Amino acid sequence: MDDDYCSWIEFPKSSKEYVAGIKAFLENAFPIYAKGQEMKCPCKVCVNRYWHLQTIIYDHLICSGPSPLHMKWICEVSHTKVDGSNDVMEGFEDNLGEMFKCTGKKFRDLENDYESLTNAEARKFYRHVREGKQPLYPGCTKFSRLSFLIKLYHLKCAHGISESAFGELLELIKDAFPDAHLPLSLNAAKNMIKDLGLHYEKIHACRNSCMLYWGDNKDKEECDNCGVSRWVLPAKKGSDASHAGQVIRKVPANVMRYFPLKPRLQRFFMCKDYSKLMTWHDVGRQKDGKLRHPADAQSWKTMDAIYPDFSSENRNISLGVAADGFNPYRSMNLSHSTWPIILVNYNLPPWLCMKPENLILSTLISGPESPRNSIDVYMQPLIAELKEMWEVGVQTYDALADEDFNLRARVLWTISDFPGYAMLSGWSTKGKLACPVCHYETSSHYLKHSKKMCYMNHRKFLDPAHKWRMDTKRFDGTIEKGHTPPILTGTDIEELLSGYVNQFGLKKKKGNSQKGCPFKKKSIFFDLPYWKHNPLRHNLDAMHIEKNVCDNILGTLLNMSGKTKDHVAARKDLQEMGIRKTLHPVLSEDGTHHEIRAAIFDLSNKEKDVFCSVLKNTKLPYGCASNISRYVHTKERKVAGYKSHDAHFILHYMLQFAVKKTLKAEVAVPLMRLSAFLRALWSKVIDLEEFKKLQTKIVEVLCQFEMIFPSAFFDIMVHLLIHLTSEAEVGGPEHVRNMFGIERYLAKLKSYVRNRSKPEGSIAEGYIAEECVTFCSRFLGGDETTKNTVCSTVFERGPTQAEYHIGTRRNKDGIMIHLEDADWKAGPSLCFVQ
Prior knowledge:
Number of helices: 29
Distance between the termini: 73 Å
Strand content: 5-15%
Radius of gyration: 32 Å
Strand order of the largest sheet: 3-4-8-7-6-11
Oligomer: single chain
Number of strands: 20
Structural class: alpha+beta
């Protein structure tokens, strides 16, 4: 041994120095590690497996000597003073000591108070401190047992190694290196890693989603609303009829999983690098009047002005709440909808806040059916904790500042698709008043023959002096005198819903005080004291809007069966409305059916071939989009099967080339203007003065569409395009307020499913394991490549010099980098080969 305090262990077992060292070890170790009067013996025979009295351990160490695996630990403990003045976590290069320190629980405090610590969490933490400091093998200074196991688990998660392969790998390492201090089985390894992570709670719920057995209702056996039992009741079968309706084994009928928020927010400040990034929105953001981050937008600034006590601490966290359902079985034959509720941390830079490792899974609602309006029932624990985080906060240790502070949190808005918008906000997104932004002034018309609602009349958003307001021939035959509807504020909604009675579950109570109101409930978010002051409470999802608009455009231009909006019923609707007489259907010569004339947007077969060939043969930079050509079927002259990101790319870049070669200018120009509008809206950096121009552009584009396409084309998703500009101005850049990042995260949650009979349980366990690995990886040193495979490294980035360009480029090391993930002063333009 190099250290002087370890020299005694090299002396003969009969020497005074060796005996004195053993006595010092036992005197220091027993007050810390003993349970009652016994402690695990670290001799060569027992190898820290068997419990003995102090006198017996003394005899074993004198006769057999210490185990090589525990020799260094014996030396350290023999030198450690009982008051804990020596920090036993020092010595390894993996920063495990720093990780334990950043939790706010000092090792020396645990050492002194170990006998008084009776809770399971403290004992578990203390055990991992001991295991974490043990070397991987005798004499190893590079890895501890814990750090090596975590790095090995990194590889499993990153490369999808099966559990059986991982277990066999552990056995192989153990056989090849017998002195390696590793767990003997996969389950032992998983338990050791998961214990370092954060827990989740199982909360029982009514099978009809009426209530939670939580809080004051946790001991109830039946639902207060529908009277259904909390437990699964056995069915009536033959001789067992006497037991029908009786609970033989208490199995809950419905279980949700809640992941407590406070420790997960505190975890961001346990790593110095992330603690620095948590103030980026205030310290690192470039403040030049341009829109780069939600902190640059009106909503953030308004909330800061109303609540200056919150904004005075730049470490307080601003969150977004995202919700969506997915089928965990990867099969359309099985109907199952699992609903996770995910939190987005907007304190981080825009290139990190939507990364999977920075998203927080808050609630997991079990299927097989969507919770619909009753999602508020399952959100009660989250809202209660968010309310406490706003009013009280939680004491948090900041590793960068090396101090404790009171951490608070707030919710800025929700992110969801349009049906999810109705579930979270309470506004019905169907029928005459489907637009939640236009609210009671939504312009809608029922199409008798198409049997659907259409949403037109976009001229009311034009400037009052615009010439199109007086045009009766090319529009609906009237002079437009309307104006832009005012925004319905949170305070207005509270007044409208005062006295509204929420009704959840299947059994509804009669006598709703707000019958006929477009609100189906008062959202649970109004329980948050600040929610009514939020300028933007719910986001319209641009991803799904673009997908639906792309479907309408491609289906109508290519006249795809079942997708086109130009058909006989649509032409009859125009005839009944008395507009666009050139498009009215005519009776066939035999008088048996109606025929429709070619419209200005109709394409011949040759033009459809050219349109499809442009989409088919477009060459794109590597990595910026999927292979869209596989969705283009030239023989059938249709585009089908493409995903949301494909629609995003088609609308932004490819559509303009296709329509320029095939359509007349009257139709091609509005479609090209739509592409230019969407590209500008999705820019990473936007000048605030550009929003007025963008709003004028999209209003004119939709008005031009009204002159071209039939009324059936204008479903609610086409209409919502007109509100995206105002939401971006209030909320911030579009790419941090849409479902792209959330949908990718749902695919990751889906990959956790191992037990198909319990998908939600598999997801919860997989998330906890991944969460623990991500947390530990922020403290472990070593190869950065290994860390990047599981979670992105914490990297610094300078102020953005220009807008991002779509494409890829090689960095100085020759590695291909997406230009969306790096700042460049100039980037390659998008190249098309036609």
